């Protein structure tokens, strides 16, 4: 999938939505949250003269607030955007922050979509809170010069610009290692020669050697973010001492690089080799499924320094460890351990590794082979599509080579039936009466969901999958009813608490029947309609008047007091 294909496919995801800008922001934030760039985001819309806000993310543990604004132009989708235009939403976000610091919470209605954010800003410890602005653009930002930073009440507010090209890079990097197959004879005239360390281990083969900076840069040039884990975030900011140190060494002391640098640790699924006459030196001809699990910054910095400074890196050498894992079943566990224990700059985060958890792999397999029931008597060709890695849907769609095949893919996998990891977690945890955990946000709740699945040792079979889709249909129905009721704020909290209340009070709901019908009954719909206003009333009346509603909904006390009524 190239950038233009990604832009077309990503736009289609929200092209038929009533509020396309809101859906664009929501979709963008889902990607960022699933990659832990933001955490527990909330939509929070306001647009008036000089002020703008679309969403926010607040990390209580890190005491970090991220304000999210959109540069969204429907008629200029995917075009180049200038620095002057991208600066505007940043400035409007700063004016919003300044207004919220003063008296915005006392002016707007409590039912306003951005009331929770305005209250949070008004009450927070401003001096000790890290604040930055994310500008999400549906265009391409090519200007190299930075935006003009501004101070609000003595605090300089930093920013990040996420355009469609940067999102495209992020989607590519999360797709895993399946398609990386390197033929060194085709790629370069250089040999990659290594020593085999262990010869009798049934689980893996380990090789030690070195790779030239030139060859490493070529690998990154061809496979980019898919070669390393999560490097879009860590490298493009270009702020860390690690990056500066690497770049300075490459520019001034190339011969010292191998002495100064810790090297890279890699894993692979399989290799093709030639051995020397002595049998001790192995020349690597092909590698399948290569991943740099540690040393991602070294890899990316090598490429970008060569590109930006036009350097010859053929005399730069990087120490390299290659572990070829023989067992597919143990690939994920060993990769995790190697990354965790390696003494280098970056390690793969826990949430990345969760994508390879057996629960999610099984759900993915079930979603690909389980078609929805047909009411016409003809075999159905429609299914729900579960994304084990964020962006899988767009990548799979782009792999279809013709318009006919793309249309067939979209007919079989309608975007209305697209499920992410955080989606299935909130459906499940809502049904199992943990609305306070769902209210903590997508990634936090997802981790709770995975822990629950492990602790309870729940078998993921077709029956479980069909019930899970029943939960999804129920949740989506409640979502629509809340939209119709036009509650201006706390929609996510209303939905999860309503679903939990329904599951708690009505033990007769048949999820398999919902699966069979692919819809809820009129009786269930009426129950939801009756519960929604009760939920709204409950969450808006915390025991301490004036308490932050979002924080209240995250407490177990909120759920316990609800079911006692």
From TrEMBL:
Organism superkingdom: Bacteria
Domain Abortive phage infection protein C-terminal intervals: 229-543
Domain (Abortive infection phage resistance protein N-terminal) ranges: 24-169
One Pfam family recorded for the sequence: AIPR_N
Protein name: Abortive phage infection protein
Species assigned in the record: Solibacillus silvestris (strain StLB046) (Bacillus silvestris)
């Amino acid at each position: 999938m190239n950038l233009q294909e990604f832009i077309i496919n990503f736009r289609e995801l929200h092209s038929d939505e009533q509020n396309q800008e809101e859906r664009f922001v929501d979709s963008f934030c889902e990607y960022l949250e699933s990659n832990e760039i933001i955490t527990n985001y909330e939509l929070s819309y306001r647009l008036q003269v000089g002020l703008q806000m679309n969403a926010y993310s607040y990390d209580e543990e890190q005491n970090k607030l991220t304000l999210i604004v959109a540069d969204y132009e429907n008629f200029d989708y995917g075009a180049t955007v200038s620095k002057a235009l991208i600066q505007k939403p940043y400035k409007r976000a700063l004016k919003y922050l300044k207004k919220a610091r003063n008296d915005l919470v006392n002016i707007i209605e409590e039912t306003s979509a951005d009331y929770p954010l305005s209250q949070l800003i008004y009450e927070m410890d401003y001096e000790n809170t890290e604040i930055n602005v994310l500008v999400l653009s549906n265009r391409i930002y090519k200007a190299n010069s930075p935006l003009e930073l501004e101070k609000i009440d003595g605090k300089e507010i930093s920013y990040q610009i996420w355009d469609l090209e940067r999102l495209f890079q992020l989607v590519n990097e999360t797709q895993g290692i399946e398609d990386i197959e390197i033929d060194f004879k085709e790629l370069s005239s250089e040999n990659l020669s290594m020593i085999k360390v262990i010869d009798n281990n049934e689980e893996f083969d380990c090789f030690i050697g070195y790779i030239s900076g030139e060859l490493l840069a070529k690998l990154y040039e061809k496979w980019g973010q898919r070669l390393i884990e999560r490097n879009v975030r860590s490298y493009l900011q270009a702020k860390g001492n690690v990056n500066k140190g690497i770049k300075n060494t490459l520019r001034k002391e190339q011969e010292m690089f191998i002495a100064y640098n810790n090297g890279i640790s890699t894993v692979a699924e399989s290799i093709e080799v030639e051995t020397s006459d002595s049998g001790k030196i192995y020349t690597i001809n092909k590698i399948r499924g290569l991943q740099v699990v540690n040393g991602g910054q070294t890899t990316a910095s090598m490429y970008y320094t060569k590109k930006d400074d036009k350097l010859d890196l053929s005399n730069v050498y990087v120490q390299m460890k290659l572990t070829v894992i023989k067992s597919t079943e143990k690939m994920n566990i060993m990769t995790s351990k190697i990354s965790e224990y390696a003494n280098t700059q970056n390690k793969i985060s826990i949430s990345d590794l969760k994508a390879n958890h057996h629960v999610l792999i099984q759900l993915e397999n079930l979603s690909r082979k389980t078609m929805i029931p047909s009411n016409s008597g003809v075999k159905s060709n429609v299914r729900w599509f579960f994304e084990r890695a964020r962006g899988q849907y767009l990548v799979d769609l782009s792999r279809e080579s013709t318009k006919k095949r793309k249309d067939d893919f979209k007919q079989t996998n309608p975007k209305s039936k697209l499920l992410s990891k955080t989606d299935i977690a909130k459906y499940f945890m809502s049904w199992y009466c943990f609305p306070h955990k769902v209210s903590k946000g997508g990634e936090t709740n997802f981790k709770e969901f995975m822990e629950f699945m492990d602790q309870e040792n729940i078998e993921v079979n077709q029956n479980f999958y069909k019930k899970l889709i029943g939960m999804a249909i129920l949740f989506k129905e409640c979502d629509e009813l809340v939209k119709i009721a036009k509650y201006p704020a706390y929609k996510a909290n209303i939905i999860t608490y309503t679903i939990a209340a329904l599951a708690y009070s009505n033990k007769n709901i048949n999820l398999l029947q919902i699966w069979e019908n692919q819809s809820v009954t009129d009786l269930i719909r009426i129950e939801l309609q009756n519960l929604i206003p009760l939920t709204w009333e409950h969450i808006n009346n915390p025991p301490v008047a004036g308490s932050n509603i979002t924080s209240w909904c995250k407490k177990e006390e909120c759920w316990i007091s609800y079911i006692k009524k």
